Amino acid sequence: LSQRYQDATNYTPESVQGHPGLDFRTQPAAFKTWHQARRVVLEGGPSRPRAPEPGPLDAARLGTLLYHTYGVTLVREFPGMSLRFRAAPSAGALYPAELYVAVRDLRGIPDGLFAYDARDHSLVVCWEGDFGPALERYAFGHPAVGQARAVLVGTGLYERSVWRYGARGYRRVLLDSGHVFGNAVLAAVPDGLRCVPLADFVDEGVQDLLLLDDRCEGVTLLAPVVEAHAPIGPAPAPRRAQVARGRGEPQDGAWIPALHRAGKLALDAPAAQEEARPVPGPAAVGATVPLASEPLAGGPGVLHAIRRRRSTRAYASTDVPREVLGRVLAHAHPRPGGPDPEADLAPGVLDTWVAVAGVKDLEPGIYRYDTGAHALVPVLRGSPRAVLHQCCLWQELGRDCAFAVLHTLDLAAGVRSHGERVYRTAHLQAGLVGQRLNLAALRLGYGASGIGGFFDDFLRALLRLGPDHAVVYVTTVGSPA
Ligand SMILES: Cc1cc2nc3c(=O)[nH]c(=O)nc-3n(C[C@H](O)[C@H](O)[C@H](O)COP(=O)(O)O)c2cc1C
Questions:
Q1: Which site from 132, 233, 325, 437 is most exposed, i.e. has the minimal number of CB atoms within 10 Å?
Q2: How far is the CA of 451 from the centre of ligand 1 (A)?
Q3: Ligand 1 mean position to 310 CA, how many Å?
Q4: pTM for the complete prediction?
Q5: What is the share, in percent, of the chain residues with pLDDT greater than 70?
Q6: Nearest CA to ligand 1 atom 9
Q7: Which residues contact 283 (CB under 8 A, 6 or more apart)?
Q8: Strands 375-381, 81-86: parallel, antiparallel or unpaired by DSSP?
Q9: Alpha-carbon torsion 223, 220, 440, 447, what sign?
């Protein structure tokens, strides 16, 4: 199903030119309307800021974390409407991701399940009670959920993205959600916390706790928040979604719930079956290039970066130093033994490529990024500017960036090992890495923007990948114009 969905939602020059245009009268609201009167107003947002300070999770630290995960960081007024930009970027600024949090035993907030309302930086009471044991069970007994006083729950409300992108919107919902949780992982650190995103959970259990209608809204990620120094026991093994066959072709509009359901995990889901797979793409055309990996400074700098980040809208034609490329890649891709190994939702599932256009002391071309060795393997020589321009729907961001990081998925191998769930997890992971790329570039004085609009076949042809590989995401980096 993933493969058929991927094919059905390919962009081609014809499909893009034939887009009927947007009808703003039918645009879904960017925020849910909550009728509950009871809310908990949080600290740590724009009106009640606080300096981070390592310590146990409390209401103030949770407020800071939620604000830097998905708070409103900019309001732009237009005639008759306000557009609220959030801490995480979003394809088309449609914000299909929603954020909930289950809290227990936390000073200042009663035990319960809450929706985060970013408009006034408050928690809306959905249910009172301790949902920890239920969530721990639905997370296959993950020890971090068992010990967490807060568990973030991400969902995607499909219609917000479908309004503009049709069935392809699901890809953006997942990428966006990955960006949101990429923020959460990084924003937890200055307060001495650790946020552990989990892509494996029993869908129906969590969905029923939130009373979600799975035709409209699906759970994407869970993320227990624990104290950084507290040891966490071993994580359960990755699971495999059972094969769902013979359901026929979903009609347009029904693709998203069908694919989301096909990736569902039940309580008795078996372990994923990892298998060795060949290195994809063209053979090396030169010597492997080692990269700089000096880590970015810790501390509150990341919170500052999240508050002031915006996606770069145009790049200048200045080259970036090679050291920047190395540090951005090292920061963004978690490695076993690295600073955030838990930020890898799907170890070994994504393949990473770097299109180098303007990096000092590095020959322009396409490179395969060997994440384990933190090195670039050259696979194609020559400037990728013209081809990236075309592949990214002729967006100038593609033409003018200094380098672009491309993530691809071997769908056939992924479905064999993880079932249809792999489609979801790979997109969530690419979004999470995308957010780390964005923030690392920003913190080093450069700019970045995700690109969800690309011609799938052109990019696959560029990377010499077969039809069973999916291009998942493109992140561009460069000097802002
Ligand atoms: C998954 C994803 C895909 C995106 N795709 C594009 C794109 O194709 N072209 C573009 O100019 N911006 C793209 N963006 C950037 C958004 O337009 C931007 O995040 C949004 O307008 C909100 O602005 P901000 O990031 O500055 O807060 C993308 C962002 C995300 C998260």
A1: 233
A2: 7
A3: 9
A4: 0.98
A5: 98
A6: 451
A7: 379
A8: unpaired
A9: negative
